[in-house]
Amino acid sequence: MTRDYSMAVETDILERAEELEGKTFLDIAGEDLSEDINFVNKGNQGLFIEKFGFGISSNNDKDPDFKHAGIELKVCPLKFSKKQLVVKERTKICSINYKELIQENWLDSSARKKLRKILFVFYHWNNNSWNSQKIIKTVLWHLESDEVLISNEWRSTKEVVKQGNAHLLSESWYKALAPNTSGAGGDRDNVEQPIQIHSKYAKRRAFSLKRPFVNQYWESLVSPDSFESIQENLNLSHEDNIEDKLLELFRPFINRPLGQICKELNIELRNAKNATNLIIKKILRFRSFSSKIKEFEQSGIKIKTVPVNKDIGYKPYEATSFPVVKFNELIQDEDYYNSALSEQLMRILFVPIHREKRDTPLADAILLNPFFWSPDEKQETIIKEEWDNAISIIKEGIEIKRVRWGNGFRETNNLPKSSETQILHMRPHAQNSQDRDVDPNGVSITKQSFWLNMSFVHSIISKSMRDI
DNA sequence: GGGTGATCATGA
DNA sequence: TCATGATCACCC
What we know:
31% of the residues lie in helices and 24% in strands. The chain contains 16 helices and 23 strands. The chain has helices spanning 10-20, 25-29, 44-54, 98-101, 110-115, 147-162, 211-222, 230-233, 242-250, 258-265, 272-283, 294-299, 327-330, 340-344, 377-396, 454-467; strands spanning 72-81, 84-87, 91-95, 117-124, 134-142, 177-181, 190-192, 201-203, 205-209, 227-228, 292-293, 301-309, 315-316, 320-325, 347-354, 366-367, 371-373, 400-405, 408-413, 424-428, 436-438, 444-446, 448-452. The strands form eight sheets. Strands 12, 13, 15, 16 and 17 form a five-stranded mixed β-sheet that branches. The mean pLDDT is 89. It binds a DNA duplex (12 and 12 nucleotides) through helix 11, strand 12, strand 14, strand 19 and strand 20.
């Protein structure tokens, strides 16, 4: 049996953590696995590592797991996505007690106690083969460099609760530390909030580090050179707003043709995606064009270039696509708020470019004012409904018809069309019609993805242009 | 010119 | 070779 590390000093804990790297759960527990332990519940991998990795018995303490060293243990699942190990889910930090929250200060808050130092144990998740799950890496994370961002989000949550609006809280308002819903389901998932002027109850929530945030940290461990930081490159302080700064840097190039901009910046203009990406990285003083933008990865910011015609109210020429969804993975998403799509929609930097006609040469396309966008509450409600609807169609079984088209044929299906929806539709997104996926009922269909309706993109772009 | 299925171009 | 962002093509 493993020694109890709960009162150990930091070096001992880290030494033990390092021993665990590369080991499977079976290696770690060995013959103890035969003990009568029930690991059926969700989160059990965490309890397992606590017990067999560090000899800590399960507890609900407000103190960090390693009391003496002030270190919290977080066991973080990784899964394969596109041949790469990525963080599977958000990391829960502590449940929120609304009543206590509004009386706390950040510096001595219960959240900060757990966040100050975190020992991340990253393991390759596999629910079907418990014993073979392997510890990939262990590392001590320090709050320091992200404390401004995280404490601001904590304060913002506190402020909402203080105003009696705990029932309105939404995970999507936050980038790193978010109050996500938590609980076992049922009545106990609603709790009384301290200020009841608007609503007596609010959903039970827990502070969690968002998946993209933790994933960026994980990726920075695996390949430290793949990121550059806006803050570092531009020498910004933690208080500077990175989004505002970026828009400001765009300013000298607005309303000018891409050809001219690229010449001035000494960039080779190849296509729209390439141009906007390169312009952004150039104005952010990136050393390498292939670097990922640290802050964008952390906050889940995606860049979308949208060709529009400014002479007809900034109307886009096309809908905006998202990555392909695998139907069998899609239907396993818990709900919209835990879906891949909601992550794609966390925050988008739209870069509209004006094209006189759809086939206006790119060099003559005019860079218009970029803007950041996240769904507002109303939009999110619609998106959730339309996502739910798509899921139920898929679960019921997609219907495919082969219809005459010109000289040949093409396939039609009953997935949501842009004519049937306000914001989202589904549409092929494949190499060609031979590039296919299989739906939950075994029906073969061209790979599909979600798209933002052209009319919707039109509405947010024209609104943004009016607001300038 | 919109709508929708199909496909291109690029980069890892 | 594949995923991705973006764009094409044809009917109405």
